[in-house]
Amino acid sequence: MPEPISNPPVRVGLCGLGVVGQGVWQHLDSKAGTLSQRLGGPVVPVRAAVRDPAKPRDIVVPLERLSDDPLALAVDPEIDILCELMGGTGLAREVSLAALGAGKILVTANKALLCEHGAELFLAACRGGGQIFFEASVAGGIPIIKALREGLVANHFPIIEGILNGTCNYILTRMEREGLEYPEVLAEAKRLGYAEADEALDVDGWDSAHKAVILAFLAHGIWVPLPRVRLNGIRRLTQDDIAFAHTFDYRIKLLANIRRDFERGHLAVSVWPTLVPRREVLGNVNEVYNAVAITGDVVGPTVYIGRGAGRDATASAVISDIADAVLWLRGRRGLPLQTPPEAEAACELAPAEAIENCFYLRLTVEDAPGVLAQISSALSAHHVSIASVLQRPGRQAGEACLILTTHRTNQAAMDETLSSLGGLSCVLADPQLMFIGGDLD
Amino acid sequence: MPEPISNPPVRVGLCGLGVVGQGVWQHLDSKAGTLSQRLGGPVVPVRAAVRDPAKPRDIVVPLERLSDDPLALAVDPEIDILCELMGGTGLAREVSLAALGAGKILVTANKALLCEHGAELFLAACRGGGQIFFEASVAGGIPIIKALREGLVANHFPIIEGILNGTCNYILTRMEREGLEYPEVLAEAKRLGYAEADEALDVDGWDSAHKAVILAFLAHGIWVPLPRVRLNGIRRLTQDDIAFAHTFDYRIKLLANIRRDFERGHLAVSVWPTLVPRREVLGNVNEVYNAVAITGDVVGPTVYIGRGAGRDATASAVISDIADAVLWLRGRRGLPLQTPPEAEAACELAPAEAIENCFYLRLTVEDAPGVLAQISSALSAHHVSIASVLQRPGRQAGEACLILTTHRTNQAAMDETLSSLGGLSCVLADPQLMFIGGDLD
Fold first, then answer.
1. How many structural domains comprise chain A?
2. Statement to judge: residues B327 and B362 lie in one domain
3. How confident is the model at residue B337 (pLDDT cuts 50, 70, 90)?
4. pLDDT digits over A7-48, tens only?
5. Helix crossing, A206-220 with A111-128: angle to 10°?
6. Nearest C-alpha in A relative to B124
7. Between 20 and 30 A from B231 (CA), which of A407, A427, B428, B435?
8. Which chain B residues contact residue A296 at CB under 8 A?
9. ipTM of this predicted complex?
10. Taking CB atoms and an 8 Å cut-off, how many pairs form between chains A and B?
11. Whole domain around residue B418: which residue ranges?
């Protein structure tokens, strides 16, 4: 038996020692033996930059290993790998660019940073001879980026769908199981620490959109600008929507959808509440779990499920990046992302006319004769074909709740329909629109 | 923007050009541009060894690229990567050892080969300075080996469970949906090409056991001898079992289970029909799909789903191995498996007394007074505690069908109980035993 490989220690610096940073430091420490054996040499967390070194923490880090200067840490010659775990897109960007400029390997869990400055960062990595690893930026502990980049390297990806935000999935699960309205569940989620004090990033879909942009980049090689992601959150969902979903054997999920039409060269990215059939795997992913369904043209449908956030799940992903970085440092292996991503991008963003879906539309309307006729005329004027209608009494006297589902129709027609409906005096509130998933039509 | 990396072509030889081999050759050809771009240089299938070069095939391979001498191909200096896709464990072993002896990289989808000769092959890889990649050997196109080895590198793995055989899952799904008995569904599966002419490898659980042994090696570093895998297949399941499962909201799955008790240092591997709660993800994986549920001590529960077999799903996995091999060739990166696997193995196989489960037991018994008393005495004599009893008329006059479920009990007690039951004259046929999954007890 040959001798085991033994390499010199690889030195890791952490920018940020919050919940995730502490998890990474602790697991690098507690799994030191296992990791050294699995990677053929030690990996050591040597230093961390924090805002206040004196602040008490859950884990013990000797004071001499702490600094309050992240930019100095980023270029520290005694650091091989820099983990950016600060969050935000200001100082985090500076620190990341500094590290890449110094030829270091950057590991980041920061999806907003990648989404807004990805192109700049990857260029800096190319120029400096470093690398960027970012497994923890999408779907927490699920090794989805590795699956997409490496495990499915033989594939093109016509459809990627994902439940990418654990907070939203938790809220939707509780609304369904407990029959509670959104505000009550949100309050509960905040109490339990499943939602941030400012919940907008999660419930309005921005966090999912950041992750969808990263997945779209990995699959198709272009950075979709955030304003081009069709985006809606879960704030306005009610028990009326939940009840409809239940009756017709769906569950409501905030679903990111990345669709590439290879014939027309179109790419479309959306994050939208979607009726997902319960018999499908994604319809059974509940609570804080995330899931990504990737269809490859060679492999067919695949699904990946796990915890999408939290200290340990995220730390697991960050450490897998550190491990890849260690092997990359040793071998300088040519990772796919070193090829300029533009080379892949033989596609443009799809116009609204080219994006088709079946839709769910809930309207709060005046409870008066002729209202259904007005609504259905508005739909037919834009060639939107109705698949089903359900009307029931509204929440207030004089109101009715009208739920329509459509046959397959394009997004432009639906946009125009919504605009026409908004002009009708019998429509009393903004419509609630959902996509209908599965093979309904 | 720096120049894209451009490396010299990497040359691939295929031993075996059956269904999977043809898929690999074809997709390497049709995706040549994409793969060259993603990997920073071309990957070319240059030669294949087949039994009969003149045989007509679905894909066109020039005759001068075919040979009938796999051993010569294995050591051919014009080949960098050898894909062993012949199957079997005789010639396939010789070819693999020859390639590794010549310092080549071996890519294989052959689970039986790895399971029986894995230790020898990995030693040969270490000695020759080559590598072995085997993503396609477990769960087809699902990149499960990459997830386990790389994506979850920070974890230890207390539980791995998997639906690892598509043929069995197809048969069980059809039995449930159509209410047909096993022999009818098997005949149908053979007609449709979902089952081999000799179905034993699949339905008796051997194929799942091979894959479970490979997963156990990856997770825990030891090769469990096949006779130490607790093994049972699906041949003897009937609509009585399906009906019970349905009534109590379970589905029957042939489940591989790899359990490690880190405190006691025990490892246990089994493949057994199991009642899986329908609310769990694995309970919703049907038809020919495979699924693997990996619980990591850091990441928590994760699940991976996809097609477990078939030309294209398997080719997708083989090509991902070829891609890894290309990057490894360029960087000679030190992959985890180069450390001697024994180093991880601080565990021994668990004795039957240490393996606990809840059990389902279906007995065909004499329909006579006192029978239930005899049966329940046999259980209590071995301290097996009954959780539920269901008795109904049997298939023949004078017979009863008796279904018992137990509280958590150990495998040794259950083995002894089965042996006692076998000695009772009122027990008319071999009992059908299943594990009960989920958190029943």
1. 3
2. no
3. very low
4. 889 999 999 999 999 999 999 999 999 898 888 889 999 999
5. 30
6. A1
7. B428
8. 141, 316
9. 0.90
10. 235
11. 355-436
